[in-house]
Amino acid sequence: MMSLTLLKEPAFAGHPQRAWSPWREAKFTEDWGSRRNWVTWDGKPNFDHLLQKFGEAVVPVANCDVKEYNSNPKQQLPFKEYVNYWKEYIKNGYRSSRGCLYLKDWHLSRAFPEQDVYTTPVYFSSDWLNEYWDAIAVDDYRFVYMGPKGSWTPFHADVFRSYSWSANICGRKKWLLYPAGQEEYLKDRHGNLPFDVTAPSLQDRSVYPRYNQSQPPVEIVQEAGEIVFIPSGWHHQVYNLEDTISINHNWVNGCNVAIMWCFLQDELAAVQREINEWKDPMDDWHLQCQLIMKSCTGIDYKEFYNFLKVIAENRISVLENGLDDEASAKNTPKAAISTLGMLHAVFDLKRTVKVLTSLSANEDFKKLDLTSLSPPPEALLHHLKAAIDTALL
């Protein structure tokens, strides 16, 4: 069993090879509104309070008893219906003809921005994914999970190979984690990852020929109030050992944006292999590959450029113009950048230059119609380098 280091003091949360957690200090979550109000005196979900605040919401719910491709099928349910189901599920000894239902990936913060739910720990405040998607007002990667004892999430790695952090509001979770690269030993003879890494079928060498070369997973039991940090590319499987509520962010920053860019290149290459036979007869084959990749991953190369542009321009603005007192008091990306400091902004710009240079030189990117990009990649790179040079004078 691989040991974990507990984070006892501020540390650089961008280290790509190390998992920190759980954090034993309750101070990180003890003042959150959700920890105060969503939990009963005996540590259970406070259904009455939750119904009062969110009863009319519609939420995504997965059936943990059913496999659909490599995940569980989801449906949209009224929150009050889900809570009624959960109460009955508990009353019936954690059994139901409807199966084990798990409320997952609920964008509660976006739907209820006025609610005092939690504060992002400063260690995770350099969060480019949510900074970008907030800027374009389309999506976010902040989620609430709620589920009964026995609900679980199948084996996976996080979107864009991002980091993630997950805080338990109440209840306990068990995590099984494999360091990046170990997943290769868990693939079957067709190259597919398992749905459940605890399934006996993984012992069948005719199906999973390299399983015996894999390391045992890192196992964590996460208690109420604790936060788990998952590094980029670490595949994991998670169980709720009790009735549990948790908050999760997926996030990218200057430390793992290059991993995100490598992931996107791998995804495009996989799409190109799948439809290679159509390359000659299809005039817009390269564009179709981008469209397919975006439908599978949520982003294509041109949006990745815009992602880098928004991140870069926010930091250039802070470096060139500073931040007035009114802006500093607001919960904005620029205020977060200012809090982290000017050297952090320069660090972010340097990492952006490195990835943007690679993107601009990429042959698949150059085959796209780039006239809609403003500013053009070369101009943005020039501006970035000039801002770095000026900041370091």
UniProtKB/TrEMBL annotation:
An example molecular function term from Gene Ontology annotations: catalytic activity, acting on a protein
Keyword field contains Transferase: no
Annotated GO biological process: regulation of gene expression
Cofactor(s) listed in the protein's UniProt record: Fe(2+)
Domain annotation JmjC: ranges: 109-268
Keywords: Iron, Metal-binding, Oxidoreductase
Keyword ATP-binding: no
Catalytic reactions of this protein: L-lysyl-[protein] + 2-oxoglutarate + O2 = 4-hydroxy-L-lysyl-[protein] + succinate + CO2
UniProt similarity note: Belongs to the JMJD6 family.
Entry protein name: 2-oxoglutarate and iron-dependent oxygenase JMJD4
Organism: Grus japonensis (Japanese crane)
Classification lineage: Eukaryota, Metazoa, Chordata, Craniata, Vertebrata
